[in-house]
Amino acid sequence: MRFLVISDIHCRERAIHWSNRLVKEENLDAIIVLGDITHFGPASWAGEFFSKLDSPCYAVPGNCDPEGVTEMIERHAISLHKKKVDVGGYVLGGIGGSNLTIFNTPFEVPEVEIEAGLRPIMEKGMVLVVHCPPLGYNDLAGATRRHAGSTAIRKLVEEFPPQVVLSGHIHEARGIMEEGGTLYMNPGAAKDSFAGILDLKDRPRVKLLDRLPTQ
């Protein structure tokens, strides 16, 4: 299985068109969406987004997605929010939203709630799909370059080491890291025409795609 990985769409219509094109050009099987599909709503836009994609989608909501987006994901895609599924022998699972921020966005929860929602589905060797990164991995935010990731997600990643961790949320932290046999990828913000690819054929591999055309 090979996936297009996108995050932080923020209601940019153009992301639909180039996502469909990339799936064809790269011969991909499905799309993984890491949240912030909308920009504080409306939730209906998320339903329209998924209905216009030509591929199966696996998704979690982001912190900028209001109440109702999770329902749109469940209706139009395969939700990985506090859930896991077997895909070609690999377990994909995760959680949406983020830890608390200074911005008071719609879907923020305390670290204790993140752990409570994620722990029941964690297992070693999975592909972890989250909006918010684990603390210390692709999470340097803003001009101060401070770590803004989740302590709860990091705790669980250390306890149940995944093969891959996919996260978004921190637009400026686009990149790939590897530590302890785990690959970490933030594909960048789709609103800025960035994306990545997850390849699960033979062994997990990830790559960032160069900045894409805006049309």
Written overview of the protein:
The chain is globular and about 35 Å long. It has a single domain (2-209), classed as 4-Layer Sandwich (Purple Acid Phosphatase, chain A, domain 2). 22% of the residues lie in helices and 26% in strands. The mean pLDDT is 96. Strand 3 (57-59), helix 3 (69-76) and strand 4 form a beta-alpha-beta unit. Strands 4-3-2-1-13-14 form a 6-stranded mixed β-sheet, covered by helices on one side. Strands 5-6-7-10-12-11 form a 6-stranded mixed β-sheet, covered by helices on one side. The protein has helices at 14-25, 43-52, 69-76, 111-118, 151-159; strands spanning 2-6, 30-33, 57-59, 78-79, 83-87, 90-95, 127-130, 140-141, 146-147, 164-166, 175-179, 182-186, 195-199, 205-209. The longest helix is centred in the N-terminal third of the chain and has 12 residues, at 14-25.
Percent of residues in beta strands?
Answer: 25-35%
CATH superfamily: Metallo-dependent phosphatases
Q: Helical segment tally?
A: 5
* Sheet with most strands: 6 strands, mixed
In the CATH hierarchy, the third-tier topology is known as Purple Acid Phosphatase, chain A, domain 2
Question: Nearest-angstrom radius of gyration?
Answer: 15 Å
Helix content percent band: 10-25%
| Straight-line distance between termini | 27 Å
Largest sheet strand order? 4-3-2-1-13-14
